[in-house]
Please model this.
Amino acid sequence: MYSSEFRPGQDLRPGKLDWVTVLLYAACVAAGWVNIYAAVYDPEAHPSMLDLTINSGKQLVWIGSALVLITLIMVVDFKFFEAFAYIFYVIILVALVGVMFLARDVNGAKAWFEIGGARIQPSEFAKFITALTLAKYLSDTTVRFDELRTQLICAAIIAVPALIILKQNDTGSAMVFGAFILVLYREGLTPWVLILGVSAAIILVLALVVTPLYLYIAIAVIALLAFLQLRRKTLRNILWVVGLAALVAIMVYGVGFFMNNVLQAHQRNRILVLVDPTIDQKQVGYQVLQSKIAIGSGGFWGKGFLSGTQTRFDFVPEQETDFIFCTIGEEHGWMGGLVVIGLLVGLLCRIVYLAERQRDRFSRVYGYSVACILFVHFAINIGMTIGLVPVIGIPLPFFSYGGSSLWSFTILLWVFLKLDSHRVEVLSRV
Amino acid sequence: MNNGRKYVIQGVFIVIGIVYLVRLFYLQVVADNYKAQADDNAIRRVIVYPHRGQILDRNGKLMVINESVYDISVIPKKVQIKDTLDFCRVMGVDKPYFDSVMTVAKTYSKLKPSTFLRQLSVEEFARIQDRLIDFPGFFYTARTVRKYPHKTLANALGYIAEISPAKLKDQNYYRQGDYVGINGLEAFYEEQLRGQRGVRYVMVNKNGVEKGPFKGGAFDTAAVAGENLVSTIDIDLQQYADSLMNNKIGSVVALEPSTGEILTMVSAPSYDPNVLVGRLFAKNYTELQRSKYLPMYNRPVQAVYRPGSIFKLVQSLVALQEGVITPESQFGCVPYPMKCHSHPRGHNDLHNAVQWSCNPYFYNVYRRIIYARSTGNNWRDSPKGLMAWNKHVKSFGFGTRLDVDLPSVKRGFIPDTAIYNRSYGRLRWQFSNFYSVSIGEGELNVVPIQMANLAAIMANRGHYYTPHLVKAVGKSGKPLPQYLERHQTSVDTSYFRYVVDGMESAVAHGTVWGRARIPDIVMCGKTGTSQNRKGEKDHSVFICFAPKDNPKIALAVYVENAGFGGLAAAPIASLLAEKYLKKTITDKRRLLLEKDFKLRDYMPKPKVDTAKKEPRPVLARLVVPPAKSRLLSPDTAKPTARVTGY
Model:
């Protein structure tokens, strides 16, 4: 379906980068870098922020190389990404499989290629490429999303890399692929998928807190009440009530089964820690507790830059990478948290806004993918540091230390900015 | 159709953001336990121990000082030793020691310091110090221990050691591992000496390694050093007395009568206080405790003896005060019921009786005291007379605990009605049952310091200041207030001169051995012979003061198992008095006497077979078993049958 008529609210000025997004990006990266320095700061060594032997110095190198990447993205033709999406997809699948055979075991996951001194993690780039591929597939004008075939193909595009990554034992990265469900929802997926997902999460929490037997009783009672409230006791309505109750009961049972039979012990602990922070004090329980202590001790205004005792003395493991938010919480308090969450939520909403103003489906789907991937990272990462989400080792976009993650997020975002800046050059294909 | 969904998605983003901000607000602002937990994590309270106060003698010479010692510690993770043998040679340890200590240190913690070598002296440390930089992972910490440069006065000074669990329980200042004064002045003046602990807050990392002061030390409190004590001891006189008490068991107490200051306090045998410092404390302590010489027994305040004839001074004064005799009263020297010894028999008045220590005379004096308010019924009169006498005697500081600034001072015993009621039954005893008290025997028990105090009372003609060892506490420059308080005896000052004159004669031409006279100083003294069980030699006792007018020193000397008081104790006392008053002894005969007494051995001779096995361990000077001094507790003491006195 082609349409080229002007739609109100569409910005048709050509060739312009969205500077709001660029500034939000720059603010996040800069704030991340400062906090990485705080996290690795050793009061006795007094190294410079730029010292290449510490992670803040290295992060500066990553930031510099990210600028090079941005330049490259800016100079290539904007159609390049769409054109090569499938080829990238094949390459990344090969890389993901290859890494399982070639990589060394790091923290229980085989996810890194080692090239020289640097480690490259294909799964970081798989998100970006999957987003491109999904966008390209959906931008095909012959594809209709309400067809089952389309939905299955979309599911396959997402699931194949996700399952390979899961096989690498990198559960965190695999879970990020769940972000695409939100994208598909935007493109017309039934909201039931989301509702089912959210209710599963609620039931999961309930099943952990309440004994399953009480849950079953509660389900039966609610079903009975619903039955009594039914105005027309038709067979159809009764079947609905009974069916829903049965579904919920199966989910309760499924959660128990999932917890006890599917999850590995350490994964189970990560969930149980949310309910009872005192368990598993040797491993993840310690990490969550220390993380909450670090953040909780920050108060409203924080302890001040380089003055966080928990940060400086390494009480929280992985503080400059996955737990970078502890540093912000401790040294800059609730205000720091407000700024960071504000920056990230602002960035996400801005991307959604930009995605909505795209004239073709490719850019829009890709834009939503960027927003949703960043969102899942943001929600899981900060959620785990404040004890609301199980500990899943994924970085906070733009803040966490690490070359792979900074590069992949930079590419992810800047490809979209590139596409956005060329949006007037494409024909509108809604 | 999907245009509304962008709001749903943006809504999800915003809702999650708000949920997280609310959660953050709860963690950071509402819940207050995280701050405390963070401080628990990262901030450690470190106690800063103050410098313990030092103790000086009356002339400003240091008696107790703090000496720096050095501990070498090791952080196993940082250790890099290229040549272990060279390292061991520098440190002065052998390879097995090195291996075992390093194993223990590594087991404890690879990152936290463990002690490698303890309490190196300044000299030992100097050898190591320059090389220490070659051995990463090893570092030193300085601290102080007590040192006693004069190696004397061990029992009076006491010692410090780790606080006992029992004491730890009933107070709240100390902590586990604190050092406190256990005995002597160290214990008595603990609060003044210890100073005030400081607190330092340091930051520690997750491995417990210190990372510098918290907030630049803003919350730290400085330690306040303990106060110095100026002792009343004259360390030169003390050491001189030590040398005279060599090879003897007994006590010497010298007082300044006008103030009650203790100039010298010897408990023989004793030990070198430095052996209870440092690495060998436990070993040495056990050895001292096990020694049958009882070196840790502070005889001047703890040994209980019978006063012997010296008590005749008190009897005279009480009798005069009670008006039962006059200085002119005469009693015949009839050898019944107690014998006397040869002395001029004619004109046996009070002066003569004191000069020659006439036993029958004081039998009669005491009889008159007891029956002073005679009703004709001896059974009823005796208790009344005894209690009236008891009150007078107690005003001399006998039978009560003298408030000396030392722990565990004994009180001695002055007979009262209770003890005889227990022994004989109420109203079933009279003077004839306890007449031996008249010459200082029987149930009487006194402590050497009480005898020295008696000498001071005689010197002061009727009053005393409680003997004490510290004349100035810290910056106040004053002793404790109780030592400025004058105690008046219940005997009028005017009666003293008769007895004092007798004491002068006793020295000049009486019971005191002629060699104990000081050529040009008038000394007043009284001999005593404290009786023992059959078969053991009597204790030699002598008290004196000098000069007669405006006395400067009052002394009590006990020499166990040395026999007659005038022969052993008196020369020692006279030498001390002369030394103190004239600073040097120049007279040839006196020097000979001094040499004689430094060598004289009054130790009870051990049986031959045990003598060989006698260990001669850490005890610096002293040696030889004292028969545990004959402690007569009032409960077990029966009136003695064998009664003589000098």
